[in-house]
Each structure stands twice: as structure tokens, then as C-alpha cells.
Specification:
The structure is a homodimer.
Chain A: H1 2-20, E1 25-28, H2 35-40, E2 44-47, H3 56-59, H4 69-80, H5 84-88, E3 91-95, H6 99-108, E4 114-117, H7 128-147, H8 153-176, H9 186-194, H10 202-221, E5 233-238, H11 247-254, E6 258-262, H12 268-271, H13 283-292, H14 303-315, E7 320-326, H15 330-346, E8 351-356, H16 363-380
Parallel strand pairs in A: 1-2, 1-3, 3-4, 5-6, 5-7, 7-8
């Protein structure tokens, strides 16, 4: 795990060197942005910073205070020059997912050349797939123009294979936690998963994850785990979490729980699906098909999330669900009502909905609620 | 004006009678929902309640507190049975405009048969018009199925003419306020404009507006106006306002201003455009074309709003702009930054951004800000 902690600093050096040698960098904010297209263009796709509290005060000079911390943090990082990935990006891709991001991008485009992808609001809509494929085509054309390259179908197929290998590796790591007790703490799983967005060299990144898998398997063989037997197993769903915004995971584990899996888009939500590698298919369509299926709360309806939750609750043998909403994230906040109902009606386990931001101002209050929740889970198994 | 005040009660009786005689009623929440299709189906299109504070407490038992009052009020009215229009609706149409409404509709569909229209997120997107036309076709088919009717092109053309007549009448009324001093107070203009959504008989509604226009013209000829010469002329933009949520208009006029026009979708934003009546055209496409042009903040980019604002500032000879955001309405709240910049860079007039809800809890604070704003405008002209 030590390697992953140091990765951020190392990636920066690699990124700077790559830039100096003429490589192009494309910044992305969201799982709907197909990194395969950027890889196929021979450029480096990077996730942009948005998981720390520090730049939010600067963002609030322009953006409303009552907006989700992820959006404010992303904007603050970008405009203050404190996100090296944004700084090094030649070009940034945004999407019309939620209202906050969609409108924030209108302000952000003053700072960097941007391309906005228009996502259909429902995956099952007639024509949604062809619309989304057309959006991928527009992005492809824009990338070709901005980066001065031509993206062939073979480039795309190769990129799909690379992205799939990465997905498979991180998915395998995530699934090691199906074991009881879990071999990885939620914080370690988050660290390893989170870093994949910042890997400049994807092959090295995959190799690192595979090395971690081997190490964890050794620990498992020795019967090791950070948790005692019977530790309440928690599934975390809702808004994405990253390094800097992990306070709820920390509280849950300090309070005696084991966060065994993340359903969020920073976790299993996007790992659960691979792009079809069938050589006879149009690779752009295959990429569109996969990404359109991501069960994000920005979609209506979003039944895929409930199905995925059910599968994860069963497969990870979960004792309780924590649904995290970043303050003012309307889509996850309203969908929480459906999640609560689904968990209640289909599983006999408790569900805790938390609404918070990146600050520490509500830490004590959260701790009280989290502790009570863990006690509730603990009692069920003792 | 007295007639308009009594209209709500009268409409209810007419609506109940119409229902009893077998007429169908279709409830709508948004200007993007094309009432022409409902009219063409021989049904009664009605706007649904969502402009009063009362049902919000009930809505907050299910919806998050941190959500725009318009959405909470709409949901609260519907689930408590306190909106007779919702109650009498056979069928309700929603749209994917903002995140809050989009996800609220997922909960509302338990209470009434619903159809959700998927709006493209940008009007200038390639394919946006054909997508939106397809959505209108889906709605048409759903209406035909639910109401047991067939909607012909001729039905549609007739409905377009009727809707256009209504638009023209209300637009003419609205434009009478280009006179200085304005012949209509903002509150009266709001009352007359707002009621159009609740008219069961459109022809009678149009006749009423025309009668009001004649009366106002008489008042103008006599040199009458509710305002003294030199009263600061204010344009209200931002979130829609209705009867029950008019507190900002009231404060502005009590504070010595004259709200001469509304740029919002409850006002001039939707009046400024007519549907093309060319008989050779596909009427569905003409309807799609017009409604897609509505410059709502849910669109990205939404440059049409700034253009419209500029035109209205000039034509209504406006001294100041008030930009109203309902709390937690992210799209208008973020777009406020663009509005502020546009007004500053293009017109030498002050712009006040207010964020509030339907309650009276911030009345004193609003009053202080509004009074200071009016004084600022007054000083400029004395």
C-alpha cells in the first residue's frame, strides 16, 4: 500500500516529463467520459482534482455556496492552479450529467479549452444509444482536431483492451473483499482504486494493482485481515469519494465497521462492466454501449443502481448500507428515498443516509450517528 | 383585474363540470411541455400548483429540505391532494429539465400516471431538434393511448393557432408596460399572466385578457398609472414566480419600484416566440422548434437568455435588473454569475441577485437589500 501513497507525487514528475517530451494530456471529471478515446489518440487521460476541501473557499467567490463540494472543489482547484492535472491538461472534457457540473463548466471554459459531451438523461430511451454514440464521435473529432491526430478503429480497439485490463485488475482487487473478514480496509481499497485515475502510465498502474492483489492474496493465505471476525460489513453507496473526502469511510472504520465495498462511481459502479471487445463490432458503439449503462443518479429512471446494490449486498454479504450524499447533490439526495425503500423491502438490513460536505464542521455529529449505526449492526450479530 | 382574482375559484367549478361530462385533463409543470398536443387531443391542459409555501412541510417528509421550493411545493400539493388540478388530472406530463424535478418525478409517479419527456440539454446540439421532435411524437402516442383519441395534423394546426392567439394576447398585455410610467403594476401583470395556465376554456381566457388590454388602454389614454413619473423601472429575471411566491415583486413595488416586466418562464421568456403556422410544415416539428428555443437555464449554453435580457432591458427602458433564484436551484444560481457579467458589461445599470424561498423567514433581510437597491436606482435619475 505504501507505493500507492507515494504515487501522486511520482505521477506528477512522470506527467511533467511526458508533457516536456510532447505528449498531450486530456483532463476528465466523470466516468461517462470515455478514457478509451483519449488513449486511442495517444494522449494521457487524467482525472482532475475535486476531492479536497482546501480550494472550496476560492470557488465560492464565483459559485454559489449551496452547491455540492465536489463541484466547488473541482472549480476551485482549476481556477487557483492548484490541480497539476488541470494545469498540465491541453484540453478538458466535461459532460451534462448533473445541473451543477453542467453550469459550472460554462464558467470553467474561460480557463481551458473544453469540450462538453451531452449525455442522454435516460439510458433506456429510444435513440439514447445512437445519440450517445454521436456524442462520442463528436469528441473523437474534437480530439483529432485539438491533438492533431487521427484515431483509427484499431487504435480504439487497442485502447478498449487496455482500459478493460485496468478494469479487470481493479475489479479483482475490489472483489477480494468479498471474503469475511475483509482483507482490505475501506481506506486502503479507496486509495488503491482512486489512484487509477491519476496513473500516467496505464501499464505500470495495472502492474501495481496486480502486485497489490498478489500481496493481499498472501495476507489472506496467512489468514490476515485488518478486522476481527464478526466486524459489521458495510456497503458505501451514493456520491463518489476520493482521497481528501474520505471522512465517512474513516468514521465508519474507526467506529468499528469494515467498509467492504463501494457502489459509487469511484468504486464498483464502473468496474462491474467491461466494453465488448468483439473485433467485428464498431468499437465506438461498444464504448458508448458500456458507458451509457453506468447507473448514475443523473439518469432517470436509474433502476440499474438498485439492481447493482442488490447484487453487491448479496455477494459482499453486507450487514448495513450507508448512502452518502454530498450536500446539495439533488439527484443522489432524492434517489436516497428509493434506495432506502429498496433496501428495506428486499433485505433485512439497516440503511443510513448521510448528507455532508468536505469540511470537518459536522464531524462530531456524524460520529454520533455512525457510532449508533455500527452498534445497531453489531447487536444483530452478537 | 377583479375578474382575474376570482378566476381560480371559477375555473375549479368549470373543471369539475368538464370532468363530469367526460372531458380529460392533462396536468403540466413546465413551459417545455407543449400544451398544443393536449389541446389537439381534445383534452384540457392545466398547470399544476407549485407556487405556495403551505404544502412544503409535507413534501419535506419525503424530499430533501435542501431543494428548490417550487419542486417541494409541487410535490407537496400533489401528494396531499391540495392541488385540484393535479387531483382532476387523468395524466401528468413531466420533463427532464432540472435535476430536482427529474428525480422528484420518479417519486411522483406513484401518485398519478405520468409521462416524462426527455429534453436535450442544449438547443444548439446537432440532432437536438430531431430528438425533441421524437419526444413530442412519443408524447402524442402516449396521449392517444391514454385518452383514447387520434391526434391529426389538422388537430395540431388548430391547437397551434389557439395557443398562438393566447400567446399574442398575453404578450400584448405584457408589452403595454413598455410605456413609462408602466400602466400595470408587476403584481397585476403577474396575476393576469399567471392565470392563463389555469384557464379551462382557452377562448374565454383569451377574451378576458383582451378585455383587460382594452381597459388598460383606456387607463393609458386617461394618463393613468399606478406609478409616479420617474419610478425606477425593474426587470425581474430568474426562476419563475406565481401567485403565492410573489414576495420579491411585492417588496420591490412596496419599496418604491415598478416591476415592468418578467423575463422568467412564467413571463416574457415563453411569450416572445410563436409557433410557425405555415400549413405546409409538419406541425409537430414547428411545435418542437419553438419550445426547444425557450432560453431556460437548464440548457447549456443558454445564450438566448442573455440576448432576450438585452432586448428587454432596451425595449422596456429598464433602470435595474433583479435576478431571482429559488434556493437550491443550481442552474439559475450559477447562471446568475453570467447574468451579472452581461448586465455589467453591456448596460450601465445595477443588477441585484436574490436567493430566497417561499417562506417569510428572510422578509426583513430581503426588504433591507431591496430598499437599498431601489434607492440606488432612484439616485441615478434624480
Amino acid at each position: 500500500m505504501k507505493i500507492f501513497d507515494d504515487l501522486r507525487g511520482q505521477n506528477m514528475v512522470v506527467l511533467e516529463n511526458a508533457k516536456q517530451s510532447g505528449r498531450k494530456v486530456v483532463g476528465m471529471y466523470c466516468a461517462y467520459c470515455p478514457q478509451e478515446l483519449v488513449l486511442a489518440a495517444g494522449a494521457i487521460p487524467v482525472s482532475l482534482c475535486g476531492t479536497r476541501d482546501e480550494p472550496i473557499a476560492d470557488a465560492e467567490k464565483v459559485l454559489p455556496r449551496n452547491l455540492c463540494p465536489l463541484i466547488k472543489s473541482s472549480f476551485g482547484f482549476a481556477i487557483t492552479g492548484k490541480c497539476p492535472y488541470f494545469y498540465f491538461s491541453d484540453f478538458v472534457v466535461g459532460e451534462t450529467t448533473c445541473d451543477g457540473k453542467k453550469k459550472m463548466f460554462e464558467l470553467l471554459k474561460q480557463y481551458k479549452p473544453m469540450h462538453i459531451m451531452h449525455l442522454p438523461q435516460g439510458a433506456d430511451r429510444p435513440g439514447a444509444l445512437s445519440w450517445w454514440k454521436e456524442e462520442l464521435l463528436l469528441l473523437k473529432e474534437r480530439l483529432e482536431e485539438e491533438l492533431g491526430v487521427t484515431i483509427s478503429d484499431d487504435n480504439l480497439r487497442e485502447a478498449v483492451k487496455l482500459a478493460n485490463s485496468e478494469q479487470r485488475a481493479v475489479k479483482e482487487l475490489h472483489e477480494l473483499n468479498k471474503l469475511d473478514p475483509a482483507p482490505l480496509s475501506g481506506l486502503d481499497l479507496l486509495t488503491a482504486t482512486f489512484m487509477k485515475g491519476f496513473n500516467v502510465n496505464r501499464f505500470e498502474g495495472i502492474a501495481l494493482v496486480n502486485r497489490l492483489i498478489d500481496e493481499v492474496k498472501e495476507v489472506i493465505e496467512r489468514g490476515g485481515s485488518p478486522f476481527r471476525a464478526g466486524t459489521p460489513r458495510i456497503l458505501l453507496t451514493g456520491c463518489p469519494v476520493g482521497i481528501g473526502s474520505e471522512k465517512v469511510i474513516r468514521l465508519l472504520e474507526e467506529g468499528g465497521g469494515s467498509v467492504v465495498c463501494f457502489e459509487s462511481c469511484s468504486g464498483y459502479k464502473t468496474l462491474a462492466m467491461l466494453t465488448d471487445e468483439d473485433e467485428r463490432r464498431d468499437p465506438l458503439e461498444a464504448i458508448a454501449e458500456r458507458s451509457l449503462k453506468i447507473p448514475c443518479s443523473c439518469m432517470t429512471p436509474n433502476e440499474g443502481r438498485l439492481e447493482l446494490l442488490g447484487r453487491m449486498i448479496r455477494e459482499y454479504r453486507v450487514d448495513g448500507v450507508v448512502d452518502l450524499t454530498w450536500q446539495a447533490c439533488h439527484t443522489y439526495n432524492i434517489e436516497a428515498e428509493l434506495v432506502r425503500g429498496y433496501v428495506r423491502d428486499n433485505f433485512d438490513i439497516p440503511c443510513l443516509h448521510l448528507e455532508t460536505d468536505y469540511s470537518n464542521s459536522d464531524l462530531q455529529q456524524l460520529k454520533t450517528r455512525v457510532t449508533a449505526f455500527i452498534e445497531l449492526l453489531d447487536k444483530r450479530w452478537t
